[in-house]
Every structure is written in structure tokens, then in C-alpha cells.
Specification:
The complex is a heterodimer of chains A (345) and B (256). With 345 residues, chain A is an alpha/beta fold. Chain A is 30% helix and 23% strand. In chain A, the strands form three sheets. Chain A has a six-stranded mixed beta sheet, with helices on both faces. Chain A has a four-stranded antiparallel beta sheet with strand order 11-12-10-13, covered by helices on one side. A three-stranded antiparallel beta sheet of chain A has the order 2-1-4, with helices on one face. In chain A, a hairpin with a 2-residue loop joins strand 11 and strand 12. Chain A is elongated and about 80 Å long. Chain B is mostly helical and 256 residues long. The chains are: A alpha/beta (345), B mainly alpha (256).
């Protein structure tokens, strides 16, 4: 992907970082963002993961100086957003969809942004081309589909050829082709040495795109780790066991020094890849097993466990009126039934 | 952040939405058409007027009768220029591009005011000459004492109304709320306050009542208004400044 026009000041990628220090946002009694400190670095995609309402969007708005922090600080290239001259040439952001006037054409929307930051009008054509909206450049944006809207938002982010890009839930509402396009775009941007900071509430999405992971829940930092480390630490393997001779098996396992937890419904779980050891132990003691199956917790489950305590809106404590009660997906314990139906925060 | 860049950007914004054309177009058409109509009706009724009314007959002011309705379109223009940023969500994109909020707001207001001033001046002179044409023998001449001031002032009045609306919309951050307050206020409430004896003395310090004094050439008999044409416009300007300062304070303080 050619990003064409480039401003002299934005060539170097040294220090194109977003630094948060003790960033806090309170709305009255409610703490939306609680003492967040982390750094987003260039050359990789940093995933910003958390359930809806965890404070991701609020954090991103504070990065852009749209919301004022109650306490703490956030800096771009060591400066406050307000101190950046022509900020779109430092950092481009896709905030929520449709942050523009529907009566204005896509071209004019981007043109007014370009002019405010001293970006040449020719650049507007380039980014419209990059996102594939050239054919509808003169159309009013109110007729745009969700996917076209996301593309226009991304065009606005790319406009100033910035070294830092920030995308808030970019795949929301996109079709598979659009999702694929955005993933590739982010990878390309990162491979060019840019800083890419992308939020999502879906672990599966992050696992596919992010190199580094920042996880928050209820505004607090829960993890700041590389994706590889997160996977290694969190994809727990265990053995699932069912037996009619529960007490005997428990005694046998305790005797052998194997830790076991009762997972309910008569199911026992043993941590690690121990199915062979458990099977042999049961055979020696002549204990009948109805099930002995190695399991691997998904990243999604790991994320759920990490954020479980901090999830603000559990589906089971107060469904929104008229909401269809959701069944937990098969294979997941019912106590972790939150996920797709959190209310937006 | 060069303010000139932001001014260019705001000009692109204002010229690229349809509401600019229809609000300002409506202001021109309504002001002129209603002014002509009332001028024509006044000419026909002059003979039946009391002596007193004939003495205070003000052909210049009558040709500006359309302003009472035309100003509503100016209010819509002023409200939409600022309020659309909030209702569309554009404000977040705009402030991300121009984080210096004072530069953003006052560039926007400067561009919208300049455009409103041009349109209002053209409207004012057009409504004067066309209104006078309807008045026949009763007409005033642009060279008569105070007339040029009144016609020029009519343009300033319409511009200040638009500016006041921009300030209110910046304070309320919603076009619907702003229109819901400004339209009935200027169309009804201000008139009622200005005409009920108990509230008359307060009512005359409201922005439109004070400001419209500038369009008057012949003062009514027993006129006890404590300010002159420029004094009245000054009072209106103070209201405008207050609204803009309020709007700026809200924009500066609130999260976008």
C-alpha cells in the first residue's frame, strides 16, 4: 500500500508512542478509567481488549484530548494532544462510526479535515482510493452502509499519513471481506513501522491481529503483555473426568498427589496434560471412568476468566427489558455466560 | 495550528451542506417578500390611519417588517452551523483535527458570520429599495437623514441574530433544543414581553427589541425608550458577546 504524500516531520518513526500515566476518568461516582499506565509502541499492533463498558473508548477519547482526564496524563510523542501542530499528521484515529455530517460528501468531509491540518487536497483522492471509496466520493455520506462508513473513518485516520493510528472497534458491523481488509491494512501499517493501537471486545479478533495485548476491565489494567506470552500463560490445559466411583477416584488422586477440582455436574477436572496418568491410576485401582478427555481452554475463556470479576454488566444480573435470554454456548460453563450480550458502556 | 487553515476548513464545511443554502435563501426571500407585502398594504391603509399614526409613519421601518419572520431563518442558520457538529457527531472528528477549541469555535463563527453579513446586507438593501417601491408617494429616500444608518443597521441586526444563535447552540450543544428555545422566544415571547405594560421596560432590553431600534428612522410619539439606535444595537451586541462567551466556556470545559 502506498501512502504517497508524506510530510517531512512525520518521516522518522522514532518515539511514535502513546504513553499513558495514571490516566483516570471519573464521571461523578463512577470510575470509567482507573489509573491506567501503559505504553503503545511503534512497529507492532497493540490490541486494546476489554468487555464493553471497560473504558476503552473513554481512554481513546482522552488520548485525542476529547475527554479531559480527571487525573493522570497521556502523551503522544511526549506531547499533550493539544500541543501537536497539525495533529492529524501525528496520529490518525477511527473513533465510533459516523462521526460526521451526513449531508456532506465523502470528498468534502475529508477535504475540510485536510485543510484544517494543512494537508494538500490531492491527498484526499489518495486516501479515498486506498479505502476504495473513490466511486462514491461525491455522494452524501448519509447513504453509506456501515462498512463504507468504517472505510471513510479509516480514510480520515490515514489522511495525514500519521505515524500513529488508533482504531476503536474497527471490525464492528463489517462483513467478512471488510474485516479481512482491515486486518491486512493494520498489519501493513505496523510493518511500515507505524504504531497501531486497536480496541476490541473480542479476544478471537485480537488473537488474529495483535502482537501485543493490553487488557482492561472496569477501567483497570489487567494485563500488558505480548500476545505470545498471553497465549502461553492463558491457554490452560486440563483433563475432564466423569466417574460413578467419585469418592474412590478422589482418594486415589489425592493419594497420588494430583490436584483435582470439582467442576459441578459430577465432573472432575485435573490441571495439565495428565489424561494418561489419570487413566492408568484409575485402572490400577479398578475405578470405572465414563469420561476421560483432555481439554484446552480457549483464549476467549482465558480472557473471560481474566475479566470475569471486573465485568460490569453480567447478563444474568439484570437483562435489559425485552432482551432474549441467551443460552451459554455449548461447552462453556454457565457461570461464564456473559459475552455477546453486554450492554454498551 | 494556523487559524487560516481552520478558517479554510470551516468554509469548506459551511459551503458543502445544503442547510446553508436553504436557511440563508429563506431568510432573503421571506424578509424581502414580507417587507414588500406589508409596505404595499401600509400604503393602501395610510389614508385610514389616525393623524397620530400618520405623523409617526416610518416608511423605512415598515419596509423591514419582513425581518420579524426572516430572522427566524437566520436563527436556524446560526443554530445549524454550530449545532450540526453535535447532532452528527462531527464535533469529535473536528476537535481531533483542531484540538485548540477556541480556534475551532471562533474560526467557525467568523466564517459563518462573514457569510451571514454578506447575505444580510444584500437582503437589507434589497428589502429597503423594493419596500420603498411598494410605498409609492410615501417612500423614504436612502439619502434622507437616518435612512442609510437604518438600512445598514438592518444588515447588522440580521447578522447579530445569527451570531447570537451560534452562541446559544454552542452552549446547548443540540440544534433541536436550541431551536426549541430560540424560535418561540424571538417569535412570541419577546413580543409579548415588549408589549405587555408590566414587562415592557424589561422587554425592551431583550436582544431583538433593543437591536431593532437601529432600523427605526421616525421615533414613535411619546417614545420613552432609554437608548438610541446605536445604543440599542450595542445592547444587542452585548447579548451576542455573552452568548459567544458562554458557548466558548461550555466547549472549553465539557468533554466532546
Amino acid at each position: 500500500m502506498s501512502l504517497g504524500w508524506q510530510r517531512a516531520s512525520s518521516r522518522s518513526s522514532v518515539g511514535a508512542m502513546i504513553e499513558l500515566e495514571g490516566l483516570t476518568k471519573r464521571y461523578g461516582e463512577k470510575v470509567a478509567v482507573n489509573n491506567l499506565s501503559f505504553t503503545v509502541r511503534p512497529g507492532i499492533i497493540t490490541g486494546f481488549l476489554g468487555p464493553n463498558g471497560a473504558g476503552k473508548s473513554t481512554t481513546m477519547r482522552m488520548v485525542l484530548g476529547l475527554d479531559r482526564p480527571t487525573a493522570g496524563d497521556v502523551r503522544i510523542d511526549g506531547k499533550h494532544y493539544e500541543q501537536l501542530k497539525d495533529p492529524l499528521t501525528y496520529i490518525g484515529a477511527l473513533l465510533e462510526a459516523k462521526a460526521w455530517h451526513g449531508g456532506r460528501s465523502a470528498y468534502n468531509h475529508l477535504l475540510c479535515l485536510a485543510q484544517s491540518n494543512g494537508i494538500p487536497a490531492s491527498r484526499v483522492r489518495e486516501v479515498l482510493d486506498t479505502v476504495g471509496l473513490s466511486a462514491v466520493a461525491k455522494k452524501k455520506t448519509k447513504g453509506f452502509s456501515l462498512g463504507m462508513g468504517q472505510r471513510l473513518g479509516i480514510a480520515g485516520a490515514l489522511l495525514g499519513d500519521p505515524r500513529i493510528l488508533m482504531f476503536d472497534e474497527p471490525v464492528n458491523g463489517l462483513d467478512p471481506e471488510g474485516i479481512h481488509w482491515i486486518r491486512n491494512l493494520m498489519k501493513t501499517l505496523a510493518s511500515q513501522g507505524r504504531t497501531v493501537f486497536v480496541s476490541s471486545h473480542l479476544m478471537s479478533e485480537m488473537a488474529l491481529t495483535a502482537d501485543h495485548l493490553v487488557v482492561i476491565g472496569q477501567g483497570r489494567l489487567l494485563a500488558d503483555t505480548s500476545m505470545a506470552e498471553f497465549i502461553a500463560e492463558n491457554s490452560r490445559s486440563y483433563v475432564r473426568i466423569r466417574t460413578p466411583q467419585r469418592e474412590q477416584l478422589l482418594d486415589a488422586l489425592h493419594g497420588a498427589g494430583v490436584a483435582v477440582v470439582e467442576a459441578g455436574d459430577g465432573v472432575l477436572e485435573v490441571d495439565g496434560d495428565k489424561s494418561e496418568a489419570v487413566g492408568e491410576l484409575a485402572a490400577r485401582q479398578q475405578i470405572v471412568l465414563h469420561e476421560l478427555s483432555p481439554q484446552r481452554a480457549s483464549l476467549e475463556e482465558a480472557f473471560m476468566q481474566l475479566t470475569a470479576e471486573s465485568v460490569e454488566y453480567h447478563a444474568h444480573d439484570g437483562q435489559p427489558p425485552g432482551a432474549v435470554p441467551q443460552q451459554p454456548p455449548p461447552g462453556q460453563p454457565p457461570r461464564q455466560q456473559w459475552g455477546s450480550d453486554w450492554k454498551r458502556g | 495550528m494556523a487559524a487560516a487553515q481552520v478558517v479554510r476548513s470551516e468554509w469548506t464545511k459551511i459551503r458543502s451542506v445544503a442547510s446553508t443554502v436553504w436557511t440563508l435563501g429563506l431568510a432573503v426571500v421571506v424578509t424581502i417578500a414580507l417587507g414588500m407585502l406589508i409596505s404595499a398594504l401600509s400604503k393602501n391603509e395610510f389614508g385610514d390611519m389616525s393623524r397620530r399614526d400618520q405623523l409617526s409613519f416610518d416608511p423605512t421601518f415598515i419596509s423591514f417588517a419582513g425581518t420579524s419572520l426572516g430572522q427566524l431563518a437566520m436563527i436556524v442558520f446560526g443554530v445549524l452551523v454550530v449545532g450540526n457538529e453535535y447532532s452528527s457527531g462531527m464535533i469529535r472528528t473536528s476537535l481531533a483535527a483542531v484540538p485548540k477549541r477556541g480556534t475551532f469555535l471562533f474560526s467557525k463563527i467568523a466564517v459563518a458570520t462573514a457569510l451571514a453579513l454578506v447575505v444580510a446586507m444584500v437582503t437589507s438593501f434589497a428589502t429597503f429599495f423594493l419596500g420603498q417601491a411598494m410605498l409609492g408617494d410615501l417612500k423614504a429616500s436612502i439619502g434622507d437623514p437616518g435612512v442609510l444608518r437604518a438600512v445598514f443597521g438592518g444588515g447588522l441586526y440580521m447578522t447579530l441574530i445569527a451570531m447570537f444563535s451560534m452562541g446559544v447552540a454552542a452552549m446547548l450543544r443540540s440544534p433541536m433544543l436550541s431551536l426549541g428555545i430560540l424560535m418561540p422566544f424571538f417569535f412570541l415571547i419577546s413580543n409579548i414581553l415588549g408589549n405587555v405594560p408590566a414587562t415592557e421596560k424589561v422587554g425592551r432590553f431583550l436582544p431583538d427589541q433593543a437591536g431593532s431600534k437601529i432600523m427605526q428612522v421616525v421615533a414613535p410619539i411619546d417614545d420613552d425608550v432609554p437608548y438610541g439606535p446605536w445604543g440599542g444595537l450595542g445592547i444587542m451586541a452585548l447579548w451576542v458577546i455573552a452568548a459567544l462567551v458562554g458557548g466558548y466556556a461550555v466547549l472549553k470545559k465539557r468533554d466532546a
